[in-house]
From TrEMBL:
Pathway: Amino-acid biosynthesis; L-phenylalanine biosynthesis; phenylpyruvate from prephenate: step 1/1. Coiled coil: none annotated. GO terms for molecular function: prephenate dehydratase activity. This is Prephenate dehydratase. Pfam families: PDT. Keywords: Amino-acid biosynthesis, Aromatic amino acid biosynthesis, Lyase, Phenylalanine biosynthesis. Transmembrane segments: none annotated. Its EC number is 4.2.1.51. Residues 4-187 form the Prephenate dehydratase domain. Signal peptide: none annotated. GO terms for cellular component: cytoplasm.
Length: 292
C-alpha cells in the first residue's frame, strides 16, 4: 500500500531533503504543499498519512507558524524528529553570474532563511530589498522565472539545481553549525526500521492555572525532583489576551514511563492542564540512510 507524506515544497526545499531522509521507502509518495499550514491541514484532514515540517532552527529559533498551527488549528500528534544541517546558498540566474554585488536589487527567500543570513545580506547587498516567500525553493523558482531581473534567492543548492540557477556563494548563514529540527506528524505511529534513534522525547503543552503564584516553578519542580531531563521549554501566546501564555515543554523520556506519568499527574493536581503533543524517536541526519 502506498503511504503519502506531505512536506513543505516545492521540490528542493530543506524540508524536502529532510522528508527524503526520513522516508526512503519505495512505497512512500512525497507530496509537495506550498506552505506549512497546507501540510498540517492535509494531514489533519486525512488527505495525506503523514507530514514533515520545520519546527526550530539553531540560528533563528522557533518556526512560529508550525507551533501555532499545531496548537490552535489542528490536532495531530508528533511521531518523529530529524535534526538536519542547513547550508544556505546565494542563487542567481546564470545570466547574472558575473554581475557586481551592488547591482542586485532584490533578495527572495523564506523568512527563516533570510534571518539566518541577515548580517551577510545587509553587509554585501545593502541596496537590495528583501522579499519573503513560502519556501526557499519557491524563491529559487521565482528568480529563475524572472531572468531579466537581477534578483537573488537564498536557499539549498538542490533548489538552485532544480531551477537551473548559478550558485554565487555557499554557506552564507551568519553562524556555523546551522541545523534545523524537522518534525513528522501523523495519526499512526511509524515503525522506523531503517533508522537508529539515540533519544526519545515527549512534547507537552502546559497551561498554567490562573492566579496561582509560582505555578511555573511548581510545574518545573514536578519534572526536576524526578530527574526528568527537559530539553526545550518555551512560551507562546494563548491568543486570548495580552500576557496570556502557555508553555511548551519537551521531556527526554517516553510518555508511558512511570516517572513522566507521575509528573503529569502532579501537574494536573496543581490545577494546570497538560496536552500531550506526541512521544517520539529523535534522529540525527548522520544516522539516516539516503533515499535510493
Ligand atoms: O524553505 C525551505 O527550504 C524550508 O524547508 C523551510 C525552512 C524553515 O522554515 O525553517 C527550513 C529550513 C531552514 O531553516 C529554512 C527554511
Amino acid at each position: 500500500m502506498v503511504e503519502t507524506v506531505a512536506y513543505l515544497g516545492p521540490q528542493g526545499t530543506f524540508t524536502h531533503e529532510a522528508a527524503q531522509r526520513l522516508f526512503p521507502e519505495k512505497n512512500v509518495e512525497l507530496v509537495s504543499y506550498p506552505s506549512i499550514p497546507d501540510v498540517l491541514v492535509a494531514v489533519d484532514q486525512g488527505v495525506c498519512d503523514r507530514g514533515v515540517v520545520p519546527v526550530e532552527n539553531a540560528i533563528e529559533g522557533t518556526v512560529n507558524s508550525t507551533l501555532d498551527w499545531l496548537i490552535h488549528q489542528v490536532d495531530i500528534p508528533i511521531i518523529g524528529e530529524l535534526v538536519y544541517p542547513i547550508s544556505q546558498c546565494l542563487l542567481v540566474h546564470p545570466s547574472h553570474a558575473g554581475r557586481p554585488k551592488k547591482e542586485f536589487t532584490r533578495i527572495l527567500s523564506h523568512p527563516q532563511a533570510i534571518a539566518q543570513c541577515q548580517l551577510k545580506l545587509r553587509q554585501d547587498f545593502p541596496q537590495a530589498e528583501w522579499v519573503y516567500t513560502e519556501s526557499t525553493a519557491q524563491a529559487a523558482r521565482i528568480v529563475s522565472e524572472n531572468s531579466d531581473e537581477s534578483w537573488i534567492a537564498v536557499g539549498p543548492r538542490k533548489s538552485g539545481e532544480i531551477s537551473k540557477l548559478y550558485v554565487l556563494e555557499t554557506n552564507v548563514q551568519d553562524h556555523a553549525n546551522n541545523m534545523t529540527r524537522f518534525i513528522v506528524l501523523g495519526r499512526q505511529k511509524k515503525q522506523w526500521e531503517h533508522l537508529t534513534s539515540e533519544r526519545y522525547k515527549t512534547s507537552m503543552q502546559v497551561t498554567l492555572a490562573s492566579d496561582f503564584p509560582g505555578a511555573l516553578y511548581q510545574v518545573l519542580a514536578a519534572f526536576s525532583w524526578r530527574k526528568i531531563n527537559l530539553c526545550h521549554i518555551e512560551s507562546r501566546p494563548t491568543k486570548t489576551g495580552l500576557g496570556n501564555y502557555y508553555f511548551l515543554v519537551d521531556a527526554e523520556m517516553k510518555a508511558e514511563h512511570v516517572l513522566l506519568q507521575g509528573a503529569i499527574a502532579e501537574i494536573e493536581a496543581l490545577g494546570c492542564q497538560v496536552r500531550l503533543l506526541g512521544s517520539y524517536p529523535c534522529f540525527r541526519h548522520e544516522l539516516v540512510q539516503k533515499r535510493t
